[in-house]
Amino acid sequence: MDAEAAKFIGAGLASIGMAGAAIGVGNIFANFLSGALRNPSAAAGQFSNLIFGFAVTEALGIFSLVIAFLLLYAV
Amino acid sequence: MATGNPIEPIHQFEIVDILPLGNIGGANIAFTNSGLFMVLTVAAIGAFLIFSSAQRAIVPGRWQLLAEMSHEFVANIIRSTAGSEGMKFFPLIFSLFMFVLFANLWGMIPYFFTVTSHIVITMALALLVFGTVIIYGFWRNGFKFLKLFVPTGVPMYILPLVTLIEVISFLSRPLSLSLRLFGNIMAGHIVLKVFGGMVVALLAAGGWAALAIGPFVMAVAITGLEFLVAALQAYVFAVLASMYLNDAIHPGH
Fold first, then answer.
1. Which end of chain A is more exposed for a tag (fewer CB within 10 A), N or C?
2. ipTM of this complex > 0.85?
3. Which has more confidence, A16 or B23?
């Protein structure tokens, strides 16, 4: 296989990893919403926990995105 | 993928020497566009905070209110994550928050360089937080700081594994803290450039030029999203930095 083609295929494969982060981030906000609707008075205090969970989950998707960009532009 | 092609999305991150300062030990020393925009970032923060708080009015004006709100915002982050004892790190967290926020916002202006889109910068910021956590943790708690890695209430047979995982997760913090900011900002700017490139390519395609409205609308929408990301990543950086400092102040789970 041509090395250039393999590079693009690898970048595409690496991007699949972001699907996992998408599911995780969706889960976090869905669960926060369902919890917040049950007890709205407690929701405001959990905002920084929400952002913390979002950031930690999102980082894993960013890792695979960075790998994809590395393959595209740095290899 | 020819270098120097303005439509190529990675071109915007190129570091250009503005003022060469000669060679020191084979390393090229120069004042670059990255350095220029770091100076601009710090100058903007300094100008904003000095001029807005110069009057010290009891009833604040608009600018003073903005400065007080940014102070109170960061103070609330620290109080809710690290407790009132964490307020001694307020200068560090506030500087990190303002630097990341202003650097991101400078980068949103077209043709401007984004300081935080280079991993050297974000890794330096993350290692600053990481080093502060380690040094302050050992200085304050002595070797009790190592209790951070040994959670209580875990059965003995699984404790070595949990400790190993805790150590690995602690060591990966600077990596994830820096990659998150760098990745978000770099990916956002690449996406903007890709959609902008689509507009240019479609406009140059003759009969298909009317279709250029699609990527143009997307580019406008993503610009709005990038402003959200710029502010959100500064917030996330400040929250995570104060959470990590909380571990140094209160080790033990």
1. N
2. no
3. A16
Can you list the pairs that B160-164 forms with residues at least 24 positions away whose Cβ atoms lie under 8 Å? none
Nearest CA-CA partner of B93 in B251, B247, B234, B249: B234
Give the tokens for residue A9: 């295929």
**What is the DSSP-derived secondary structure letter of residue B197?**
H
Q: Which two tokens stand for residue A41?
A: 């008075």
Instruction: List, as own/partner pairs, every contact residues B216-223 make where C-beta atoms lie below 8 angstroms and the sequence separation is at least 24, other chains included.
Output: B219/B192, B219/B195, B222/B188, B222/B191, B222/B192, B222/B195, B223/B108, B223/B192
Closest residue in B to A51 (Cα–Cα): B236
Residues A31-66 have pLDDT tens digits of: 999 999 999 998 888 888 888 888 889 888 988 988
What are the chain B neighbours of A52 within 8 Å (beta carbons)?
236, 239-240, 243
Q: Do B81 and A48 touch (CB under 8 A)?
A: yes
pLDDT in tens, B155-190: 889 999 999 999 999 999 999 999 999 999 998 998
Work out the angle between the directed axes of helices B173-203 and B119-141 (0-180°, nearest 10). 160
Contacts of A13 (CB under 8 A, 6+ apart): none
